[in-house]
Amino acid sequence: MGLVVQKYGGSSVADAEGIKRVAKRIVDAKKNGHQVVVVVSAMGDTTDELIDLAEQVSPMPAGREFDMLLTAGERISMALLAMAIKNLGHEAQSFTGSQAGVITDSVHNKARIIDVTPGRIRTALDEGNIAIVAGFQGVSADSKDITTLGRGGSDTTAVALAAALDAEVCEIYTDVDGVFTADPRVVKKARKIDWISSEDMLELAASGSKVLLHRCVEYARRYNIPIHVRSSFSGLPGTWVSNENPQGDAQVEHAIISGVAHDVSEAKITVVGVPDKPGEAAAIFRAIADAEINIDMIVQNVSAASTGLTDISFTLPKAEGHKAIDALEKAKGAIGFDSLRYDDQIGKISLVGAGMKTNPGVTASFFQALSDAGVNIELISTSEIRISVVTRGDDVNDAVRAVHTAFGLDSDSDEAVVYGGTGR
Question: How far apart are CA 296 and CA 227, in angstroms?
Answer without folding.
Answer: 26
